[in-house]
Predict the 3D structure of the following.
Amino acid sequence: MFLIFALITLLGALSVAFQKNLVVAGLCMVITFFGVAGLYLLLANPVAAALQIIVYSGAIVVLLLFVIMLLSAHEEEDAQSVHSVQRWGSVAAALALAAGVVKVVLSSGFLRGAASGPAPANMNLERVGTALFAEHLVAFEAVGLLLLAAMIGAVTLVKKDL
Amino acid sequence: MELLARILHISPQTFWMIAKVIIVFAGPLTLAAILTWVERRGSAMIQDRIGPNRALLFGRWRLLGLPQLAADGIKFFMKEDLVAEEANNTLFWLAPLMAFVPAMMGFAVIPFGRDFTEAGRTYSLSLLDPGNGMGMLYPMAIGAVAVYGILTASWSSNNKWSILGGMRASAQMVSYEIGMSLAVIAIFMTTGGYDPHQIVAAQAKTWNVFPHIFGFLVFFTCMFAETNRLPFDFAEGESEIVAGFHTEYGSMKFALLQLSEYVHMVTAAALIVTLYFGGWQIPGMAHPPVLLSIGAFVVKWVFFCWVFIWIRWTIPRFRFDQLMFLGWKVMLPLSMGNLLVHAYFMHRWG
């Protein structure tokens, strides 16, 4: 099961990167998000899976595709000049990121605990709510404030006469 | 149950699972097919016409025009399958499936009858058993994904009217989703749970529609926007953009797109019944027999399907800016107010 969802996620992500057509790339992104939602389900967290689909697949990528369709160019354009520095730099950055992620995952104590400990209980909405509003209240409010600021910023950027 | 399972040499759980899959697949699909007929006859009734009544079964039985359904099916299968020249072929083929599959998935959490116990086992009448952790989030997630069928269909046809229809549909669905979710959250709050079985059980005394009348109005309106039905069918808008997202579609692909709209309508009606009209509960009866509870659900369900058709042939289409105004400046504040008032009452009087 894990392999199926991991493959869906990886293949989706790869085709987002290599697909020349922007709309098809956007749809591949949806497939990737479904794969991630499946992985959340396997981690006994159906709430995160549902929210992943509602927020990312249902709202964010729809808006993304909406913007892409508004633009006239649906095909990726070829670069005017090839910068090999950029290319190798991006490969190096990606490798460094991947190495960092693998190191963090391998060094986490959870990996050792999960194999021996009992299977965690299913996450539900009540537990998400108490975690958000009891343990992480300040962070939650800060994120809300940040999003509000971003929203107002977007409006002021777009509106010529307020 | 036990006997049937023993005849088929499978365990009762497996038997019940298979039976439920068949019910959940066949039930909404059959109702959706019948609704295509009801829509035509109902619209004729409302507009003082006769409606389809020419199709005869074996050239003899008229049956109020019901054989029209079979005639439609045969006709759609026999039609030539046309694909527009500049269309994106793969996506053009995939789009009807992307519309149809989420439409069929949405019904899986809805409890369509009271749980019953037989030989020490409890059988629940919904495809996903209670306590699955997804609860009402599941139909919302599926509903959110449904827009991709329309978007893909509209973009892959490579037709400016199609793209206009698809963009209208996506803008509309995303903006109405927020008001809808807030209305549903108010129900989660007063119920103290988000599992549809809990929500139905909490409505034993009073249906949610009475305390949540504003929430119901918002949810009901948003369901029209989500299913792309008139007065909000901007994805099609015949008088403005030909047939919107399915302008280029013909034959069975068109039929699938059309059928998925009806299945959405069926699911939306079932959601309204579950959230606001007590699901399978019967007023004044604490523990109705299982069959009676299924009957009660079906009666309410069919009634709301009819309301969808009734409204389509009564109210004219909105203008697009009116739709956006209604969504952001009426529905969203209304559902937020609903949420705050319920939160205040719960805080004050428990």
